[in-house]
Amino acid sequence: MAGRVVVSGAKNAALPELAAVCLSPGTVEFSNVPLVEDIKVMFAALREIGAEGEMSGHDIRVAMPLLRSPLVSRQTTQTTRASILLLGPMLARHGLARVAMPGGCPIGERKIDFHLQGLERMGAEIRTDGEYLSARCARLRGIEFEFPGKTVTGTENLLMAAALADGTTVLRNCALEPEVTDLVALLGEMGADISSPAEGTFVVGGRTSLHGAVHRIIPDRIEAGTYLIAGCFAGNDILVDDVVPEHLQSLLDILAGMGAEIAVSGQAFHVRGGAPLAPAHVVTEPYPGFPTDLQAQLTTLLTQANGVSSVRETIFNDRFRHVGELNRLGADIEVRGDAALVRGGSRLRGTVLKTTDLRASAALVLGGLAAEGETRIENSYQLFRGYENMPEKLQKLGAEITIIAE
Ligand code: EPZ
Questions:
Q1: How far is the CA of 81 from the centre of ligand 1 (A)?
Q2: How far, in Å, from the CA of 157 to the mean position of ligand 1?
Q3: Segment 112-127 mean pLDDT
Q4: Of 337, 341, 332, which Cα lies nearest the Cα of 318?
Q5: CB atoms within 10 A of CB 199
Q6: What is the sign, positive or negative, of the torsion defined by CA atoms of 368, 371, 375, 379?
Q7: Cβ neighbours of residue 179 under 8 Å, at least 6 residues apart?
C-alpha cells in the first residue's frame, strides 16, 4: 500500500461531547465529526430525548431546548455503551434520567460503579432493575471525589454533572486521555468553570447554566495509530495525515524500539514498511501509557517481528478474542493469563475469520492485508462502529478490500 490517508475526528471525543449538548439550551456546532455508526446512534439517542439538529457531512449543529423524554432506550445502549454518558448531563440539567444498562464491545468486565458512586454522592437517587438505571435528583451538589480507579467515561460523566452542580467539585485520580481533555475544552467553550491544579485533578465550579459553542473535534488517535501500524508491514509506504503526534507518543516509542522507519513532521507521520522488526514487550495502560484500543492491531504487527514479543492487557480482562482468529491466519500466539506471547516471523495465509469487537476487527483487517491469498472477515459491521470509511481509505492506498455485506 502507498499514499496518503487522512485521519477522521475522534469517535471517543465526539461521544461525550454530543452528550454535553444536554447541559445547555444553546446550539453547539461541531466540526470534524467522524461518520461512524456509534456517532449516528448517539445522535439518534439525543434526538430521542429532545435534541433538535442535523448532521451534514462532518458537521453537526444541535441544541437541546427541553428534555422531551428522560428515556434512553435499550436499542441505543445495546449498540454503544457510551449512552451511559447521557446520565450525568441529563441529571445535572433535568434532574431525571432513565438509561438502559449499557452494552458495547465484549472485551471483558466493564463496570460503571464509579460513575454511580460519584453521582450518588452528588445527591442523585439511583435505582436499577437490572435492565434500566433510573435516576433522579434535585440540583446536584459539588463534592470531593477520588476515583478508586482510572475511568475514561466515568471522568467525563462526573465532569459534565459537576459543570451544573451547586458548589465546587474536586475530582481526583481522573483519566487524562486526550478525549477527556477535549471534552474539558468544549465544556469551557460552553461557559463551564474547570481548572486542573494538579495532574489527574479537576476542580469544577458549578454554574447555573451553560451556553452554546463552536467546537472542532480532535483527530482520532486510535485510527491514526491503526494506519501507522499498517504502514509498518513490509511493502507499505504511507503518509498518515491530520494527527496530533504527542497523542501517540507511547506507540511511536514502541515502534521506534522495534526498528520501524517513521518520520514525524508537523501533523503527519510518514511510515515505510520493510525494515526488519525487533520484538517488543508491551503493557496497556491509561494515557499517556500505551492504549488498550491499539493492543489488537499492534499484536498483528508483532506476528511479523523477528523473535518473541509479549503483550500484557491491564485495562480489560477479556480483550484477547482476536488472538484465536489471528492464529487461524497462521500466527503463533499463546494467551497466558493477562498476557499474550507472540512468536514472530509467521507466514500468514488468508482464511475465513470472525470478528467480535471494533478494534479486533481492525487487527484482523491488518492481518488479512499482510496474508497471502484472500481473507474473508465475518461480522465486519463492528469495524464501521468506529472507523470512518476504512475499506475506502485502504482502497485508495492500493489495498484490495471489498465490503460484501455490513
Ligand atoms: C473508554 O471506555 C473508551 N470508550 C474505550 O474505547 C476504551 O477502551 C476505554 O475507555 C479505555 O481506554 C469511550 O470512550 C466511549 P473505562 P470506558 O471506564 O470509559 C473499570 C473503543 O474501542 N471500571 O476507562 O468504558 C472497567 O471495568 C473503546 O473505542 C470500573 O471498575 O472504559 C475497566 O476495566 C472500547 N468501574 C477499566 O476500569 C467503573 O465505574 C477501564 O474502563 C468504570 C470503569
A1: 10
A2: 12
A3: 97
A4: 337
A5: 7
A6: negative
A7: 10, 12, 13, 16, 152, 156, 218
Cell numbers for 154, please give them.
466515568
Residue for grid cell 470509511 = 389
Cα torsion 117, 121, 124, 126: sign:
positive
Q: Is 5 in the pocket of ligand 1 (CB under 6 A)?
A: no
What does each C-alpha distance from 279 to 60, 145, 258, 302 come to in angstroms?
A: 43, 41, 6, 7
Q: What is the pLDDT of residue 73?
A: 87
Helix, strand and coil content of the chain, in percent to the nearest 5, comes to 35, 25, 40
pLDDT in tens, 203-242: 999 999 999 999 999 999 999 999 999 999 999 999 999 9
Residues 6 or more apart whose Cβ sits within 8 Å of residue 253: none
Pocket test for ligand 1, best of 156, 312, 315, 320 (most atoms within 8 A of CB): 315
Cα–Cα–Cα angle for 238, 239, 245, nearest 5°?
Answer: 125
Q: Set out the domains of the chain in order of their start, with CATH numbers.
A: 10-216 (3.65.10.10), 221-396 (3.65.10.10)
Q: Which residues sit opposite 204 in a β-bridge?
A: 169, 194
Report the C-alpha gap between 389 and 377 in whole angstroms: 16
Atom of ligand 1 nearest to the CA of 177: 12
C-beta of 358 in contact with ligand 1 (< 6 A): yes
Catalytic residues: 105
Among 11, 79, 110, the mutation site with the greatest number of ligand 1 atoms within 8 A of its Cβ is 110
- Residue 104 alpha carbon, nearest atom of ligand 1: 35
Q: How far is the CA of 386 from the centre of ligand 1 (A)?
A: 15
Q: What is the DSSP string of 151-215?
A: -HHHHHHHHHHHHTSBSEEEEES----HHHHHHHHHHHHTT-EEEEEETTEEEEE--S----EEE
For the entire predicted model, the pTM comes to: 0.97
Tell me how long the chain is. Answer: 406
